[in-house]
Amino acid sequence: LCSDVRLRIQQRIAQAFGISSASMYLTKPTFFSRINNTEAKTTHDEYWHPHVDKVTYGSFDYTSLLYLSDYAEDFGGGRFVFMDAGSNKTVEPRAGRVSFFTSGSENLHRVEKVHWGTRYAITISFTCNPDHGIGDPVLM
Length: 140
Hints:
- It comes from Ardeotis kori.
- This protein has a single domain, classed as Sandwich (Jelly Rolls).
- 15% of the residues lie in helices and 34% in strands.
- It is globular.
C-alpha cells in the first residue's frame, strides 16, 4: 500500500511539474505526523514556525502531504499556510487530500497551531538526486 501511494503521488507531481517520475526518488525524512495542542518539548516540535523544506531537510526537491484527518471535524487550527507576499494561501486538511509543492524558497510555509483534537498527516518527499534516494518503508 505504501509503495502504491508513493508511486501515485510521485506520478502526479511529475505530471504537474513536467518532469519524469523516473528522475524522482523518495527521500528522508518521510514521516507520519500527529499534531495536537500539547506543549512542544523541543524546538523540533514547534511546527508552526515559517520554514522552507529544502533548507530544513536538505534533500527535499518536492514535498507532498497526505492528510489523514479533517479540519474542523477532527481538529481545530492546523491548517497549512503558504506565506506569500501580499496574501497567504491556506490549505484545509481533509482525509485523503494530497497537497504537493516544490520545496525551495518559493514555498515558505507553516502549519497553524492545533487548538483542539489531533491532526494526522504523512509527509512524502522526493529528491532529484539519486544519492539522497531511499527505498520504500518496509513493515516488519
